[in-house]
Design brief:
single chain; alpha+beta; 3 helices
């Protein structure tokens, strides 16, 4: 029943008596052999479940040993060797999935951060260009904003400042024009009074 378990991936199962003789084995050629290796001796001496990891034929194996006792009398032990390769394959697949999801999440986060950054930078770039047009002499606000954040407040304040500058410039030009007109009239008055 142990060897038929596909989920467990057993490589061997055996029952040893107290002398290390094989009483039952999944490989019939092993029946009757005496196992005197340190692994078998420690399995026979164990008081409870014993688990060891080892490599046989370049394959990682987990060896489980359990003493067999009836009514307190020890009869031997049961040893089962389970291949760790299916578990390692599953761990590699899980690591690949974790890496894939992490990469996908990181890429998604980068795209979101890029879009948010663009959304924040675009109005600042427009405002910067508007400021450059003021420096070149044109002082009109190119666009009104509907943003309700600090950038929108900055854009609206800049547009109001441009409107005040435009009005100040118009008032200055009107004042200069009136002053020139007054000076011209005064000069004409002096010429007329000098002729008379």
């Amino acid at each position: 029943d142990i060897m038929g378990n596909r989920q467990l991936s057993p490589l061997y199962a055996m029952v040893l008596d107290l002398d290390g003789r094989v009483l039952a084995h999944n490989n019939f050629h092993e029946y009757g052999k005496v196992y005197d290796d340190p692994l078998s001796r420690s399995a026979l001496a164990a008081e409870g479940l014993l688990e060891r990891r080892l490599v046989i034929d370049k394959r990682p194996i987990c060896d489980f040993a359990m003493p067999l006792a009836i009514a307190g009398k020890r009869w031997g032990c049961l040893r089962v060797g389970v291949s760790m390769e299916p578990l390692r394959r599953e761990l590699r697949a899980l690591a690949a999935q974790v890496f894939g999801f992490s990469a996908l999440f990181s890429l998604g986060a980068l795209v979101v951060f890029y879009l948010v950054g663009e959304g924040l930078a675009r109005p600042l770039i427009v405002l910067s260009r508007q400021m450059e047009t003021v420096q070149s002499g044109t002082s009109t606000c190119l666009s009104e904003t509907s943003r309700r954040d600090e950038i929108g407040l900055l854009q609206r304040s800049f547009c109001r400042m441009l409107e005040r500058l435009r009005q100040s410039e118009q008032e200055r030009e009107a004042s200069v024009s009136r002053m020139l007109e007054n000076e011209r009239l005064a000069t004409v008055g002096k010429i007329v009074s000098g002729v008379a």
